[in-house]
């Protein structure tokens, strides 16, 4: 039986597109909803063009009341009844109660080699630290920020003269490879870690 997947985005949705494109043929999952905290997120139009139902819950309408925003978001998710929730560039910190509701069923992709560089500005921080490599991580979401069991990582070298933008582009290309592979395995019930 196909697992139902909802994807949360905040922007253009490039990882969302790769996830949706991967869910074809004998894939164990299908996308039933793309939702965003920003009604103007470009990824919503892209999802609709791919035939995916969409929803938007504008966080700004809730004036910092995260539980009320999450209740509205959960109501949209409930309509689609997903089994798995994928965060794909969803730029809102979720409350412990929301995360616990989805415990063991929510994945996130983060643009660093966790546990290094949780939070924002990951590429700049890797460059400032003089690291020799960077990358991305797919993990199960827990109430702690950018924490939780790691299901996959992809690494890229940091090259001489790298800028934040150049490094970010190389990491994003690996995100587009890694996230679909982890989701497919996860939807089959396989928690084995993938390293690229």
TrEMBL record:
Pfam family, one: Formyl_trans_N
Gene3D superfamilies hit by this protein: Formyl transferase, N-terminal domain
EC code: 2.1.2.2
Recorded coiled-coil stretches: none
Formyl transferase N-terminal domain ranges (all copies): 4-183
Binding site for (6R)-10-formyltetrahydrofolate: 66, 91-94, 108
Keywords assigned by UniProt, alphabetized: Purine biosynthesis, Transferase
Highest classification ranks of the organism: Bacteria, Pseudomonadati, Pseudomonadota, Alphaproteobacteria, Rhodobacterales
Functional summary from the UniProt entry: Catalyzes the transfer of a formyl group from 10-formyltetrahydrofolate to 5-phospho-ribosyl-glycinamide (GAR), producing 5-phospho-ribosyl-N-formylglycinamide (FGAR) and tetrahydrofolate.
GO MF term set: phosphoribosylglycinamide formyltransferase activity
Site feature (Raises pKa of active site His) residues: 146
Reactions performed catalytically: N(1)-(5-phospho-beta-D-ribosyl)glycinamide + (6R)-10-formyltetrahydrofolate = N(2)-formyl-N(1)-(5-phospho-beta-D-ribosyl)glycinamide + (6S)-5,6,7,8-tetrahydrofolate + H(+)
UniProt cross-references to NCBIfam families, sorted A to Z: PurN
Source taxon at top rank: Bacteria
Binding-site list for N(1)-(5-phospho-beta-D-ribosyl)glycinamide: 13-15
Family membership noted in the UniProt record: Belongs to the GART family.
CDD domains on file: FMT_core_GART
Active site: 110
Annotated protein name in UniProt: Phosphoribosylglycinamide formyltransferase
Involved pathway(s): Purine metabolism; IMP biosynthesis via de novo pathway; N(2)-formyl-N(1)-(5-phospho-D-ribosyl)glycinamide from N(1)-(5-phospho-D-ribosyl)glycinamide (10-formyl THF route): step 1/1
